[in-house]
Amino acid sequence: MAGSLLGQDSGSTAAVTVIKRALELESESRYPQALVCYQEGIDLLLQVLKGTKDVTKKSNLRKRISDYMDRAENIKKYLDQEKEAGKYHKQIKIEENATGFSYESLFQEYLNETVTEVWIEDPYIRHTHQLYNFLRFCEMLVKGQCKIKTIHLLTSLDEGSGKEQQSSGLEEIRESLRNHGVQLELEYSSLIHDREIRFNNGWMIKIGRGLDYFKKPQSRFSLGYCDFDLRPCHETTVDIFHNKHTKKI
C-alpha cells in the first residue's frame, strides 16, 4: 500500500493521497493525469524522505520512491510513443459555470519555444466579444515562451450588418500583431463548421465551442471581467491530440 511506510504527518498524508490517486488513474488507463500525480507524489515523498531519521524507514522509502519513479518513467515512454504514432488523445470536460479555464491555463502546456506558427479554424470570429477572444488568444501567443511568427486564421465572413466591424477589427489586430513582428494570415470560407487549433510542434486542440466558451460577465466590475481564469464558462469539451506531421488547415 502507498501509505504503509509513512507516518501520519501532513506531508506524509498528502503524499499518500496523491500516490493513491496516481495508482487509480493508471489502473483506469488515464495515463496523462496519472503521470502528473506520480510526479507530484514523488516530490512530496522526497520531502518526507529528507525529514526521516530512522535508517530502515529511510531505506524502504527510497525503494518505494524508486518504484514510483519507474512507473512514471514507463508511462512517460508510453505517452511519447503514442505521440510519435499520432495516437495521443486527452479530453478535458469543462462543466457549466466552471472557472479556471483561461486560454493561458488551457494552452500554455503545449506552447514551448519551438512553436513559431499557429493555424486557427473557427467559423465564429465575427461579433465584438468573439474578436476580443481572438485578440486575447493572440496576446497569449505573443507574450508566451513560444517564438510565434505567423498566425493563420480561417473563419466565416459576416454577411450581415456586422461585416464592416468584423473586417475592421481583424485588420486592427493584424496591424497590431505586425508591430510585434507577427504576421496574421486571414482567410474566409462559408463552408467551415469545425473548430480546431494547430501548433507546428504537433499539438492539435479541438474545442466544441471554439474560442467562444466564456460566459458574459455579470457586470463591468465583477470578478472575471479582466481575469478569464475567474470567468464562468459554458459547458464544452476540449480534445487534445498530437501528431508530429501537423497538416496545415
> Any idea what the radius of gyration is?
22 Å
Q: Which sequence of strands runs across the widest sheet?
A: 1-7-6-5-2-3-4
What class, by secondary structure content? alpha/beta
CATH superfamily of the largest domain: MITD, C-terminal phospholipase D-like domain
CATH architectural designation of the largest domain: 2-Layer Sandwich
Question: What order do the helices and strands come in, and which of them pair?
Answer:
Blueprint: H1 10-27, H2 31-50, H3 55-84, E1 88-94, H4 103-107, E2 117-121, H5 128-143, E3 150-155, H6 163-179, E4 183-188, E5 196-199, E6 203-207, E7 236-242
Parallel strand pairs: 2-3, 3-4
Antiparallel strand pairs: 1-7, 2-5, 5-6, 6-7
Helix pairs in contact: 1-2, 2-3, 5-6
Could you characterize the architecture of this molecule?
This protein is of the alpha/beta class. The protein has 2 domains: 7-85, Phosphotransferase system, lactose/cellobiose-type IIA subunit (Methane Monooxygenase Hydroxylase, Chain G, domain 1, Up-down Bundle); 89-242, MITD, C-terminal phospholipase D-like domain (Endonuclease, Chain A, 2-Layer Sandwich), CATH 3.30.870.30. It is 43% helix and 16% strand. It has helices at 10-27, 31-50, 55-84, 103-107, 128-143, 163-179; strands at 88-94, 117-121, 150-155, 183-188, 196-199, 203-207, 236-242. Strands 1-7-6-5-2-3-4 form a 7-stranded mixed β-sheet. Strand 5 and strand 6 form a beta hairpin. Helix 1 runs antiparallel to helix 2 and helix 2 (31-50) packs antiparallel against helix 3 (55-84). The chain is elongated. It starts with 9 loop residues before the first helix and ends in a 7-residue tail after the last strand. The model is unreliable at 245-249 (pLDDT under 50).
